[in-house]
Specification:
mainly alpha; two-stranded antiparallel ribbon; 16 helices; 4 strands
Length: 325
């Protein structure tokens, strides 16, 4: 009985892999991996996630919104985000209303219906784990999301992913993590989980494109990877490479005239102390002795930053000299 059941499971799995173009049968009747399955394995995804990502990226190849950042950020948002909170439909609607023309085109391309989001926010209240797809909505119906077939599950994944992309967008634009959590009315741990998982997922997406030979799309996506790691806008990426210089510290450096590796490398560590203090949480009613110890700690950090910037700057100059030769 168990052997028969196992045989059925194997047959069902093979049929599913064939239906999703993960395997094919060669002229000898042998099962062979397809480019999609190689990309899926190379990116460390499940067959279901690989098929979903492939469909999303293939549509992006046909129409990629290049005059904004929302499409790239959406592509780098992890597909499995059910563990980082539910959709707050009221906030979702508000974020959609703030989108510019570029962002609205992204909505259209990925399949988000603003009218549906508006109906959910009005009829079903702020939060539901599930959605009643394409059915009349009544405020007191008590009905929720239905994900009974593959198409409903796919659309639910797109909506959840785009909602998480709004949070990731704010992180990439130097909004502090606690502010993002407060804005979306979720626990800070959910935002931390999103920030931690998106880097690995982004690397997987780029690997996915490389294996499939989508070089142009890979190049477009690679531009955003450094911003994801730094949690900063493009103008701060050089500064954000320095150890201990996160997005907030990098912005303070930038606003005070230190806008390059060279400027930090040539600075005196004591010059950085006031700037590093600006980037720290405010301290109230601190004893003088404790404050002096804190200042010494900040000075030590400033020395490490200057030394690290020196190493990075020296390495860059050496590479430039080798390139010229």
């Amino acid at each position: 009985m168990e052997k028969a059941r196992l045989k059925d499971w194997v047959a069902e799995t093979i049929d599913e892999l064939q239906n999703t173009a993960q395997i094919s049968v060669d002229s000898m009747g042998m099962y062979q991996p397809t480019p999609l399955s190689r990309a899926t394995v190379g990116a460390g995804m499940t067959p279901e996630d690989g098929a979903f990502v492939h469909d999303e990226l293939r549509r992006a190849l046909q129409a990629f919104v290049m005059d904004g950042e929302m499409h790239v950020i959406y592509m780098f948002t992890p597909v499995n985000i059910s563990n980082i909170g539910e959709i707050n439909w009221r906030i979702f609607r508000t974020e959609i209303e703030k989108l510019d023309e570029s962002g609205l085109r992204v909505l259209e391309f990925v399949g988000i219906n603003p009218a549906f989001v508006n109906r959910m926010s009005v009829c079903l209240g702020a939060r539901y784990k599930k959605i009643e797809w394409l059915m009349p909505c009544r405020a007191n119906s008590g009905k929720q999301f239905v994900e009974e077939d593959a198409e409903q599950m796919k659309m639910a994944r797109i909506y959840r992913r785009f909602y998480a992309a709004f949070q990731l967008r704010d992180l990439c634009n130097e909004v502090p993590m606690h502010a993002v959590a407060r804005k979306f009315e979720i626990a800070r741990g959910f935002i931390q989980t999103l920030a931690q998982t998106c880097e690995g997922f982004a690397a997987g997406i780029i690997q996915f494109c490389e294996i499939l030979g989508w070089g142009m799309l890979k190049s477009v996506l690679e531009h955003m990877v450094d911003r994801l790691k730094a949690g900063a806008r493009a103008d701060l990426l050089e500064l954000a490479r320095i150890p201990f210089v996160k997005s907030r510290t990098a912005r303070i450096f930038w606003e005070n005239g230190m806008r390059s590796l060279r400027s930090v490398a040539e600075a005196d560590a004591r010059e950085l102390v006031p700037l590093l203090l600006l980037a720290q949480p405010k301290r109230y009613n601190v004893a003088k002795a404790e404050d002096e110890r804190y200042q010494q700690k900040i000075l030590l950090r400033a020395e490490i930053i200057v030394e690290s910037a020196n190493r990075l700057w020296t390495r860059e100059q050496q590479l430039n000299i080798e390139t010229d030769l």
